[in-house]
Sequence to fold (404 residues):
Amino acid sequence: MIQQLARLVEVSVTLNSTLDPDQLLHFIIEKAAELLDCEAASIMLYDEKRDQLYFTAATGTDSEKLVEIPVPLEGSIAGTIFRENKPLVINEVEKDPRHYNQVGEQVKFQPHSLLGVPMRIRDKTTGVLEALNKRKGDFTDMDVRMLSVIASQAAVAIHNANLVQALQHAYDELSRIDKIKSDFIAIASHELRTPLGVILGYATFLQEEAQGEMSEHASAVLNSALRLRSLVEAMTNMNMLRLGSVKLDMQPVILQKAIQCALEEVSLAFESKRQSVALSMPGTSLVVSGDEEKLRLVFVNLLDNAMRFSPEDSRITIRTQVVKDEAKVEIQDEGIGIPPSELENIFKEFYQVEDHMTRRYGGLGLGLAIARSVVELHRGHIWAESDGPGKGSMFVVVFPNQSG
Fold:
């Protein structure tokens, strides 16, 4: 049982780190066939326009022929699984009246035993994952549970991979059609939120329950999901700022409270790298006029930047103070530092100091651009200081102070 759970965690790690749809599909069916010890596996996805299922991947058969064979929702085993939205085990497929034998005849493969489970995202069934011809004995309840877990993870991973791939295509067209980019980012960001919640919840549960090597695998899943969530939030916020659709709810805001809220939001990411945070804040509240949610966003992005570009077991220091008539916040890290020539460029949209083909730290290059835009909306200023590569960085934010 423990070994099977470990294998499922390994599958989950790969599913959530693979963004190529074709590679993802083939990995799913290969692992499904391997874990259930059966001769073949296949994935059928639902085509809403034609109201039918179609093969997207299968082991041991001619995939080009399979794509040409539609599978009806009525009069097929896969269609029954899809319509009834529940697993189905058939140990004598040839005798089942729902068996759609056109597929086997055209690809020269005859199923004898079959286990099929629906693929779902939220309450929507998106396809069917099948395992065919168990090598030893019949399909068991454990097989049903394992294939159901794979199908749930696969549905989310395929959905994410398709969205991310489409997002990449949109970025390739940025220079030509700016409006397409903005619209697509808004849609993709919205659609990614729900499957991301599923991944984060499942990964958090695994990390809490697992031990040893399994715990390390679960941490890898959780870190990947947190990174993707950060990218989604960055795309959404940058798009709103570029379109000028950000509305500020200006109120007196205690700056220390906004920083604490930001720290809570990024705490999991800091824990994953065993990084500590040192706070140096005066007892007196620093009050500024601003939108608390947007100010929190500034510090989330600055803390995320410090976390990503700092090594494990390092320390990030946050200092707040009043300087003349300004509230000042300093966030200092022990990271890779910034060359003097790049201290201003790092605040540009999509800008990365590293070459995009060899960079190690990830991100879209939007966090600092978002932070500067929001700070300027609050009539504040932000800049970076560094003694150079390898010597850490400090980001300084100042706002007009309203403390009494």
Summary: Residues 57 and 116 are 14 Å apart (CA to CA). The domain at 251-400 is CATH 3.30.565.10 (Heat Shock Protein 90). Confidence is low (pLDDT under 50) at residues 355-359. The first strand starts at residue 38 and ends at 47.
